[in-house]
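dude i think i finally got it to work??
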Amino acid sequence: MNNTASNPVYRMRLLTHRIGILLSFCAMALGIFFLAWILITLVMKGAGAITPEIFSASTPAPGSDDGGLANAIVGSLLMVGVSTLLSTPIGILAGIYLAEYGEESWFAQATRFVVDIMLSAPSIVIGLFVYAIFVIHMKHFSGWAGSFAISLIAIPVVVRTTDNMLALVPTSLREAAYALGAPRWKVALMVRLRAVRAGILTGVLLAVARISGETAPLLFTALNNQFFSTDMNQPMANLPVVIYQFAMSPYDNWRSLAWGGALLITFGVLGLNVLSRTFFSQKTQG
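look at this
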């Protein structure tokens, strides 16, 4: 032991190890510091706006001292809900296809490549794309256009999560199902998919968290609406765009509501991430 401790190579490696650990700890502490700073600032500036009125009243007129975010909250829930209904089955089925035929078909390999590109594509580009192919031809903004835009952001997340989770299913489990005479489609749906359903649900929740705060695509598609409306064929209020507009306004009430909306989105996304981690943890333990 003494010879090892006095070895210059050992001491240099030990010093390098300690420096690496110290730098890693400093990086972690820096990240946690800024995260805590953001959360504390949001709570301090947004907590005062979280009143019953924010959930019951629509966005106020300029210079008004009352009002809330009911129309924006309902609009965001509607568009995220429609987007989830669109992206979940498409993403899961595409992920199953990639997991089953990803190494056998050139089309599956090309699909995986396109999905990877879409994962890194700026959201404003997707918003412009939907504006060009949908909004211009319909000649008006709408909640449907906004749902379509954010669903294009959610689909790649669900596809990659499903593909990666299905790849974790042991080969022996699939071979056992084949040995019993089960066809390939039934093995994919009833064996592989059921084995990783908690992980796939985690991917869906992460996709919902990903699209909940998107602003750029909705500026080009759903725009905004000062009044309460559930008509998806018309411009629709939503929290990200309202926050963007109110935060830069000269009215104190609007800025206060912007902080309140930012707090709602932040803790909503945080709750979805905690929920997804809980499902993933349960699956790991199982």
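The radius of gyration is 24 Å.
im so relieved honestly
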